Amino acid sequence: MGWREAINATVAGLGFDLVDVERAPRGLLRITIDRQPGRAYAMPSEFVLVEDCEQVTRQLQYALEVEGLDYSRLEVSSPGLDRPLKTEADYARFSGEAVNIVLKTPFQGRKNWQGVLQRAVPEAVAVEADGAAEADAAPAAGWQLVFKQGKAEQVLGFNFDEVREARLVPVVDFKGRKPRSDAAAGEQAGEAPDAAAAPGTDGG
């Protein structure tokens, strides 16, 4: 087992999602974790807590010692309110939420888009088969963003491998965090703004 696999297995074994692994300058190993939906934790919370980071840090130190990985500092933190979506499993988990995406190739002159993430639904088309018309499903992109442009609802279809970066739109409410589904329902179209990342929790 390699050190990356050891990190993934350790984080998953403690009941967390591994969001990202980064080897930064000066020997810093930065691990980003998230809580799994519907799982019971010793400290109930919607967010990753300091106690969560400390628990994962301790176990990772043992695992990385076994793997012989050379690093000078281990940092375990939460993904913040603008959590990155790294895998299609992340897309599935956060379907229905407002997200910012950056495309690898510009579409209609821009790469940055914002809207509500959904799975794409194939469009039904009529095709001729043996002289008879039949309904068939036209190929569709795997995902789509739904947003409003003026009063009209627009849809941007795309595949996972066409996206350079995807992040949740931060939802901040000083009276308490609103459900993301409520916030996503009101998202408007436009170039995705540059959102400042929420500070993570350093457990290392």
Task: Write the topology of this structure.
Layout: H1 3-13, E1 16-23, E2 28-35, H2 50-67, E3 73-77, H3 88-93, E4 98-107, E5 110-119, E6 124-129, E7 132-137, E8 143-149, E9 152-158, E10 163-168, H4 180-185
Parallel strand pairs: 2-3
Antiparallel strand pairs: 1-2, 4-5, 4-10, 5-8, 6-7, 8-9
Helix pairs in contact: 1-2
Description of the molecule:
- The chain has 204 residues and is α+β, with helices and mostly antiparallel strands.
- The chain folds into 2 domains: 3-77, GMP Synthetase, Chain A, domain 3; 88-185, SH3 type barrels (Roll).
- It has helices at residues 3-13, 50-67, 88-93, 180-185; strands spanning 16-23, 28-35, 73-77, 98-107, 110-119, 124-129, 132-137, 143-149, 152-158, 163-168.
- It has a 5-stranded antiparallel β-sheet with strand order 9-8-5-4-10.
- Helix 1 runs antiparallel to helix 2 (50-67).
How many helices does DSSP assign?
A: 4
Query: Biggest sheet, open or closed, and with what strands and sense?
Result: 5 strands, antiparallel
State the shape.
elongated
- The third-level CATH topology of the largest domain is SH3 type barrels
* CATH C-level of the largest domain: Mainly Beta
Q: Classify the helix fraction into a percent range.
A: 10-25%
Q: What is the rounded Rg? A: 20 Å
Order of helices and strands: HEEHEHEEEEEEEH
Q: What number is the mean pLDDT?
A: 82
